[in-house]
Prior knowledge:
Blueprint: H1 14-28, E1 32-37, H2 47-63, E2 66-71, H3 75-85, H4 90-114
Parallel strand pairs: 1-2
Helix pairs in contact: 1-2, 3-4
Amino acid sequence: MLAHPRGFISGRDRKALLAEVKRFADEENVVRFVVGLPLRMSGSEGPEAREARAVAQAIADATGREVVLWDERLTSKQAHRELSASGVRAKDRKERVDAVAACAILQAWMDARGR
């Protein structure tokens, strides 16, 4: 199985985000969500990781689905490299990095589970 982007949902409005995620979960029969956990290179957690944990809990509460946190270290760098190798111009990469990084997070989770 391969991960692929399913679109972008803005996180600026938490209530709208959760409503859209719930709608998506219901329509697509989602069993669980995988949320990136932005750990520091040392493996420790900072404020970004605490916020990711809060978002993950909010998604679980809003959808009634399991939410798995997965280490997302270096996925943005990986996404930039993949987009660059694909010939995507630097100014166009900014818009796509999050979707490609999200795919890398999901793919890493699926690969680890498959073993």
